[in-house]
Structures
1.
Amino acid sequence: MKKDHFISPRIIEAELAEAREIAEQLEKRGLTGDRAPGYYIQTFGCQQNEADSETLAGLAETMGYRRVLSPSDAKLILVNTCAIREHAEKRALSIIGEYKHVRENDPELIIGVGGCMVTQRSRADKFKTSYPYVSFTFDTGSIHSVPSLVKAAMEKKKRSFVIGDEYKISEGLPVSRSSGHSAWLSIMYGCNNFCSYCIVPYVRGRERSRLADDVVEDARRLVADGAKEITLLGQNVNSYGLDLEDQGGIASIMRRICEIEGDFRLKFMTSHPKDASDALIEAVASEDKIVKQFHLPVQSGSDDVLRRMNRKYTTEHYLGRIEKIKKACPDITLTTDIIVGFPGETDEDFRMTTDLLREVGYDMAFSFIYSPREGTPAAKMEEQIDKSVATSRLQKLIALQDEISVKRNSRFIGRTLRLLADEVSRTDENMLTGRGQPARPVHFAGDKSLIGRFADVEITSAGSYSIEGILKK
Ligand code: SAH
Ligand code: SF4
Ligand code: F3S
């Protein structure tokens, strides 16, 4: 084990002591229970950020704050940002801009901004100079420092803009989960792949895996607490354990979690095609608790583009993995990510992507227009693609995937699926949405009391986006 793999337990304990001290001070002022100051967390980006925000919530609660549903009721606002595309950064800036007015009404309000966006020096500097009402920013490796940052802000000490050069694992931080029945479980952090378009390796550091025993213990606790679904998370979840000795890989940790007694199911994301091992595919196919889904981002169907993206696989390798998955698990739900308009992408390259979409027959694809990210090699490549060309390719891709999705979703019609009743439908309060193997949520009539429980639902109709069914029992 590398000695510097984890943040020292002493540092974590010191931060937790700061957090408890803040709580004690609030208590002395009678600010507990309903009178406790509110905290509000705004999260952008991927599931990893959702999981990190649950740790931020855990820290806020240790500091004696209580969750509120509106930023205007909060005394502490934490924003967890994303930097994956320009749009994500713009949205965060616009929301943070709105908090200016909240702060004007309450000079004691503390606003902290963390996450991938402010792990870039230029962005942290921008907050320092142009957002005077932001008390502090913190990088993705410094979530544990939030109690001392809040304390400094309370004591009106200097504003802080933390960007370290170390990304370590912090074990032992409190977590306050937002969803009772579906749980995120981070098993590794960071990325070593440096795809030429992607900001993640620069803002999340190198790959580091948690110890297998710690992960399994967390999973055991989640199941005991009533979680019905656990999603294992990592930027490259299937390289889990490659940076450590003796911890096993993703397949072995998933099999260990499946041995935990209880009625729950297991998911994992996101996998890189180069590390989609036979062992993982076999585990997905054979373990009943693992949902029969595989998210395997391909990004492009052109070998030329894949090479310039530094994806480290060819379409031949990718399609070989897909073939292996389909053979092991013929009913698998396959999903992917695609980037259109990567620098130099020709009409012919794009045609190869649509061909690959047809050949694989994904249940669903997340498609994005390439967004240049400062500091990445692709941003400096010549032949940046015109926005209108990229938009038109995106529209074609979405239309094609819609056709494919209808066909794929239709295979469930007449079948009874075991779904996890997730929430009341946003459009009809008598309907629930349930999730399971289909890539899209399933809508069915049912009582709210079913939420958080498994339900057998017979699928009656399926479009590209919406699937409907009736409750069997
Ligand atoms: N680690 C995962 C996913 C990371 S981000 C993986 O490698 O698959 C999720 C998706 O965002 C990526 O799969 C990619 O399709 C997209 N993405 C990443 N950087 C992008 C950029 N600069 N422009 C547009 N899309 C991007
Ligand atoms: Fe980004 Fe590539 Fe790493 Fe995924 S594998 S996070 S796309 S660099
Ligand atoms: Fe965004 Fe960071 Fe996730 S850039 S997609 S929040 S890892």
Note: DSSP finds 13 helices and 19 strands in the chain.
2.
Amino acid sequence: MSQVTSQYLQNCLEIATEAALAASAVLLKYWGKLATVEEKGRSGDLVTIADKESEAVILEIIRRNFPNHSILAEESGQFTSNQSEYLWAIDPLDGTTNYAHQYPFFSTSIGLLIDGVPQVGVIYDPIRDQLFRAATGLGATCDRATTPQGDRHPIHVSPTKTLDRSLLVTGFAYDRRETPDNNYAEFCYLTHLTQGVRRSGAASLDLAYVADGRLDGYWERGLSPWDLAAGVILVTEAGGKVTAYDQTPFAIDTGRIMATNTLIHEELSSALLRIAPHKLDKFFSNIS
Ligand code: IPD
Ligand code: CA
Ligand code: CA
């Protein structure tokens, strides 16, 4: 495992912030002004000039500052270097469907994995000017883009103790029409057990909202490292817990995540394991 100093992580955080803010200027430039929206192959998986141009801006900044680090960027793919224990996972526009429909919930998400573990994360929502940041051992914060370093506002997960008092969030992957593992059963069941389940459409902000205590928990499958890297370190540094559904250690390559305020982790895990698509009909025929 590589040893990194907090000074080094802080520097990574500052550069990632610079990149996220530069990318967000591109997103705002095209906001409401898209001439065309393309599909990437799979039905419903959209891409726009804003995704591509904002990614180019991020790549230039990360490469200039960290020429030896590897990069995994949603629109351009993977660039591997010898010093491959450092991997930047970049989503230039998380929430492209929202963005294309002018639904104001999207972000830029930039995470740094060291030896496969998320250690630095920056998520910026340019519509609300909310900048979420975290790094291992440095805590998690939410500020405006212009907030000076000394004034940063720490964030913490919610104090909600039980699932029936929780507000959750989830999402549905682009393969949902092709797989029975489409999260529909889990969504129905958790809607029944909680105060509500949101489907906001930007995985990175879903995680940031768990970190900030606005939501109590999140689960989803079919995600990519760029959706998750930054949000995972935010939740962890804000006092939350991130694992697989069965509470085994989180592994970013599985694309499956359960993130909570820690207090409801056990209950959410057992609900997710209890429900399965084939049990849903039986469940709803038995409830009053
Ligand atoms: C998507 C969003 C969405 C999640 C999808 C992701 P994109 O990312 O995060 O909330 O449910 O699985 O792919 O395509 O907008 O970057
Ligand atoms: Ca995404
Ligand atoms: Ca994206």
Note: The mean pLDDT is 93.
